[in-house]
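Structure ticket #2291
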Amino acid sequence: MAESEPLIRSIEAASAFRRTQKLGPLIAMRMVGDSLAVALGALVGYGYRFHVSGVPIPGGVVPSFRAYALAVPVVVGLWLLVFLFTGRYRVQRGQSFVDEIMGSAGSVALFVVLALALEGLYRGFPYSRLVLADAALAALALFIAERGGLRLVQGALFSSGFGAVRVLVVGTGEVAGLLIRRLRMFPEYGYQLVGQVVLGDGPGERSDPELPTFPLSQGLGTIVDRERADMVVLALSAAPPDQVVDLARTCLDRGAEVKIVPDVLEIMTSAARTEQVAGLPLVGLRPNRLVGRNLLVKRSFDIFFTLLLAIPAAPVIGICALAIVLTSQGPPFFGQERLGRHGRPFLVWKLRSMVVNAEGSTGPVMATAGDDRRTTVGRFVRRFSLDELPQLWNVLRGEMSLVGPRPERSFFARQFEESVPRYRERLEVLPGCTGWAQVNDLRQGSSIEERVFYDLYYVENWSVGFDLRILLLTPWRVLFHRHAY
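Resolution: structure written out below.
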């Protein structure tokens, strides 16, 4: 086995090179876009400092534009080198825009430090550090706008099949089904499902009736070659380790990338905590992090950002409430009982988006696509989640948090507690106006099992940074989600 390791590494390298070739045009677009953003930012910095800012110029004479223009290629080259060496030109599929920008923060900081160092070492011309500061801010703003535009182009290209990674899923059960549903939900990530390999021959093992299914008895290597799979995901929770290793080597031998879904995924939603006792590794399940002083930190976070968000939200709520009153009968606001922390009921406040007494003849039912109970204004406010804005009041009252699992109505929550494993655990924390499930486009139309999976991941991995990340992702998801009705 040891003798085959160099061969396997060379196969993995060749496979990685093949995948990179597919993304070559996207990488080139990023480099060209960055170059234009930095160059334009440098020119904006010069113009702002000497012609707009009003800050006194030493000697009263505007420095030569030519000297600054000649420095632009150097600055652009430095930016490209920093981003290349820090790996920021790798196309990471499935990464959110917010994560991409936040991940670039270290590279931008390194660029600024090196640019300052070069400016200090160069004696041929006295470049202004204020120009560098203004140029850096302008370049950063243009960089964010450029990457946002390229992200839309990238999503469109991936959705059309350009640069797509052909994915073969091996295994059945809830984990394989969850993986297939998520890959189908986001075609803009560039993963193209080509089939599912099942252990048996029965149709009951299929996770998606529309996805081609192949029995493992055909030979995994044969299937990989025939379907030209670039990536194979092994979701074999009940398979013995030796079988998983053999299947992985079969895929690697054919140049396919291999991903393995851990079998503990069915009982644990996050990475485990590991520690050693006398050299013996121990693995423990990660507990709820929202206890003790973390509760105080989260509450302080909620109050600060709720008061901040209330300023722009207040006029939006007022305009929507007026539109509701003018176009339909009934009050503009609607209070509905939901279950809060530890299962305590409370009234969650929303802008009314449906006719009065919408469930009078049906009893509690969830909203569906094309729901005819919605009012004219209600369709609009629900599409953009504006009906949820009054819940800022619930946050100030301490009944909700800005971020957390969405609260369920008691009628449905009781059903879920009986049928969904670990559902009760999401009630250990305050419900949220937005959550990890929601920014992953999991709303009422999606599987409750998937929502619980994401909610528990949030509970076990909470941090202030995680909350901030979800808040930043929420507006983007509101604009582009597919399951708001």
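Closing remark: Confidence is low (pLDDT under 50) at residues 1-18.
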